[in-house]
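Exercise (ungraded).
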Amino acid sequence: DVKVTQSSRYLVKRTGEKVFLECVQDMDHENMFWYRQDPGLGLRLIYFSYDVKMKEKGDIPEGYSVSREKKERFSLILESASTNQTSMYLCASSQDRGINQPQHFGDGTRLSIL
Amino acid sequence: KQEVTQIPAALSVPEGENLVLNCSFTDSAIYNLQWFRQDPGKGLTSLLLIQSSQREQTSGRLNASLDKSSGRSTLYIAASQPGDSATYLCAPFPYNNNDMRFGAGTRLTVKP
């Protein structure tokens, strides 16, 4: 079974801090994704990556950056955290650029910015 | 931009009932459509993926259909059980990766 692991289930940070959210998958998947999920807004794609060192912006990249130095790891970075970035963050991975391959999700990180 | 709508937003049924969840999308330029389940406070679990060339996909008590030309998909759950209680989301996968969209979900409650 595919395992997507997010480093923290719950995280509390302060405004202005630099925040790192880590995601690791164990199935040698090419694609990795970061979403945020908010009540009433659903899931929205922040960034995705289809290869090491490659990244593409999703729907809402502002205020975020990503890093993919190794195939199995995809990091989401909040450069200077703000309260409107309080959310549930979900990481996903899939094989072969996602074409007809399902996305597999981690359990999420609930991030609170105070 | 792709718009994904799921109806109803919430559904409550007695155990044993068959039910249908609906998903509609505005842009039919998709490779596939995936149905997910999400339990409270958890990530998403993939249930079924229907390729754009397929009409149906089945897994156990679940059956998903896809009518790409009309922008519709349905998830049929047979003989519902309390353990099926969760939020169900659909996500059409577009030709343009940058335009991934999820529906807001249908929150299903199956009463014993």
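Further reading is listed at the end of the chapter. For now, observe: Chain A has no helices and eleven strands. Chain A touches chain B through 30 residues (CB under 8 Å).
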